[in-house]
Every structure is written in structure tokens, then in C-alpha cells.
């Protein structure tokens, strides 16, 4: 019986270690980092990102200033994408963060607006609710200071009347 007891004391920690190593070696999501991914302003946001978005668990990624949720990845984030200039694309404000929305064939690309560096989210259509994702992630993105925001036609100053040249 002494031999069996000693065997268990060796086998159990070894099996637990092996399981932990296999779990830690789960494949990470390959994401190309953004051009300005090493911008120090990305760091506070990255550490504030949630562990799950719309019930999708966060996964490890291959590049700096990136994140992904779901298996397969349902939401992909990149910090350090180019800052957007004026646009006529739809803009929404969620929890104090402005977002510009663009829809392609089966993908939504949602980019923070008025923050430098900008943050980009890519969601596959009809997989996770974009309003839930934006609500859950805006707190983290607000760690990047605002430099402006979306404006609509009603926010623009009235044009001065012009007089015809005579």
C-alpha cells in the first residue's frame, strides 16, 4: 500500500501540471497589429478590457495591443489604428465614447472616434449584438483621452448669409 500511496502523490501533481500546460497552450488568435500598436495610450485600455463580451470569453492573441473574444473569434480588437477624420458614416455615442460604424458584406467594423490612438472592433454580422459589445467595452476605451467627438448637421454653426457679388 505504501507504494500505491507514493505513486498517487507523484501522479496527481504531474497530471495537474500536464493539464495546466495543455490548457495554457491553447492556440492564440492571430491578429495583425495596428500601425500605432506600441502607442503608450493603448496600455491603460488594454488592462481594463473585460474578460468576456456578450458571453464570449477573452482569448490570447499573437500581437501587441490586440484582443479577441469567442472561439472562434467573434470580436477582434486592435488599438493603434489610424485616427478617423471627418466622415459621413453613422456615429453613435455609447457611455461617453463615440464610435463610427461601417458594415461590409458580413462584417461590422466599428472604430472609436475622437480618440488618439483609435481602437477598432471587428464583429461578424449576426454573431454577437454590437450594442452589447459597445456597452461592455466603452469603459475600457474611455481610458484613452477624448480629443473630440461626432457632430451632426445640427451641431454645425449656421453659415453666414452671403451677398451676391455685384
Number of strands: 8
- Report mean pLDDT, rounded to a whole number: 83
User: Helicity level, as a percent range?
Assistant: 25-40%
| Unreliable residue stretches | 7-24
Distance between the termini: 112 Å
What is Rg? Answer: 23 Å
Give the class from helix and strand content and strand pairing.
alpha+beta
The helix/strand series, from N terminus to C terminus, equals: HHEEEEEEEEH
Beta-strand content bin: 25-35%
Q: Outline, from the CA principal axes?
A: globular
Largest sheet: 8 strands, antiparallel
Strand arrangement within the widest β-sheet reads 1-2-3-4-8-7-6-5
Number of helices: 3
Structure description:
With 166 residues, the protein is of the alpha+beta class. Helix content is 25%, strand content 26%. It contains three helices and eight strands, in the order ααββββββββα. The protein has helices at residues 2-24, 42-48, 130-141, and strands at 52-53, 56-59, 66-69, 75-81, 90-94, 97-103, 107-113, 118-124. Strands 1-2-3-4-8-7-6-5 form an eight-stranded antiparallel sheet. β5 (90-94) and β6 (97-103) form a beta hairpin. It is globular, with a radius of gyration of 23 Å.
Amino acid at each position: 500500500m505504501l507504494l500505491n500511496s507514493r505513486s498517487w502523490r507523484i501522479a496527481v501533481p504531474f497530471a495537474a501540471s500536464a493539464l495546466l500546460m495543455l490548457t495554457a497552450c491553447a492556440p492564440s488568435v492571430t491578429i495583425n497589429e495596428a500601425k500605432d500598436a506600441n502607442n503608450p495610450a493603448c496600455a491603460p485600455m488594454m488592462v481594463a478590457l473585460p474578460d468576456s463580451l456578450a458571453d464570449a470569453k477573452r482569448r490570447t492573441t499573437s500581437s501587441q495591443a490586440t484582443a479577441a473574444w469567442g472561439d472562434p473569434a467573434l470580436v477582434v480588437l486592435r488599438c493603434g489604428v489610424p485616427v478617423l477624420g471627418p466622415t459621413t458614416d453613422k456615429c453613435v455615442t455609447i457611455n461617453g465614447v463615440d464610435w463610427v460604424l461601417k458594415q461590409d458584406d458580413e462584417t461590422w467594423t466599428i472604430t472609436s472616434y475622437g480618440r488618439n490612438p483609435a481602437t477598432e472592433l471587428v464583429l461578424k454580422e449576426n454573431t454577437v449584438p454590437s450594442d452589447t459589445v459597445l456597452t461592455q467595452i466603452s469603459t475600457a476605451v474611455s481610458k484613452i483621452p477624448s480629443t473630440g467627438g461626432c457632430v451632426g448637421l445640427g451641431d454645425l454653426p449656421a453659415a453666414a448669409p452671403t451677398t451676391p457679388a455685384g
